[in-house]
Amino acid sequence: MFKKLSHGLSSIFKVTLSEKNMDKTMEKLKLTLLKSDVAVQAAEEICKATEKQLTGEKIGAFSKKDTLQKAIQNSIYQILSVENQFDLINTIKNRPNKRKPYVIMVLGVNGTGKTTTIAKMVHLLKKENISMVVAAADTFRAGAIEQLGKHMKKLDTRLIKQEYSSDPASVAYDAIDHATAKKLDTVIIDTSGRQVTNKNLLTELQKIKRVNTPDLTLFIGDSLAGNDVLVQAEKFNESIGIDASIITKLDADSKGGAALSIAYITKKPIIYIGVGQKYEDLIHFDPKWFISKLMGNTKN
């Protein structure tokens, strides 16, 4: 995991830093981050924060092996902790008005693993004794309703659906109405996954959100999508509004830059990460764990 970025950072950590080679070292750090799909703005912010921490340090301290490493770790942590970490389970269980379901709207383009991630979320919440219903509001992609339905059947969870080409906002509304009547805790709304350049998609999503006022709007980002995921996150955040993100396929990612970039661009927390294909392979995102992986820690 993150071998490319870890290897690049490890070579920087070996530098015996001095005032003379500060600029050269920061440039090398920036290039290493950019090669690992870290957004330019995020890479520059990390370098700026790192240099600021080192400024004023005594020259002798620069010879310590961990001085630069700690500064970079702190700079990355600042980006990943743009807001207080969001605890979804506690938020659902302790919502002020328990007569109403907690509504989650899920966004993401085709191929990000959105449907599988929803299934993983259902599995995770059911383990916490949280009741729910899922809305099949992707009424555009052929097979989307059936694919989601297979997962919900395995997970013994009700799926609210209509015919293809039905109004997605109406499907979501029906699911919320059902959950309210049955006194269920949560509604998860699946949405159509087309490219963010599709204006009709963005208009459709805006309507779903306007009509159903979700409590949480989740962006699903594919860590293997490179710079494309940055464009997706930025566009969805500008057009729809993102409250938090889930990063998928992190187990297959050799770079690790996507998570950093999404956190920086959206200024919203990453709450879970996908690390495999099984329902159990959705885990809580811990910035400290993530950074330890970037630093080359192979344990756990």
TrEMBL record:
Where is coiled-coil annotated? none
Protein origin, superkingdom: Archaea
Native species of this protein?
Candidatus Lokiarchaeum ossiferum
Subcellular localization(s) per the UniProt record: Cell membrane
Name of this chain's protein: Signal recognition particle receptor FtsY
> Locate the SRP54-type proteins GTP-binding domain: which residues?
269-282
Alphabetized, the UniProt keywords read: Cell membrane, Cytoplasm, GTP-binding, Hydrolase, Membrane, Nucleotide-binding, Receptor
The keyword Lyase is assigned to this record: no
Q: Which InterPro entries match?
A: AAA+_ATPase (IPR003593), P-loop_NTPase (IPR027417), Signal_recog_particl_SRP54_hlx (IPR013822), SR_rcpt_FtsY (IPR004390), SRP/SRP_N (IPR036225), SRP54_GTPase_dom (IPR000897), SRP54_N_sf (IPR042101)
Family listed: Belongs to the GTP-binding SRP family.
Under the heading Pfam families, the entry gives: SRP54, SRP54_N
The principal location of this protein is membrane
Membrane-topology annotation of the record: Peripheral membrane protein
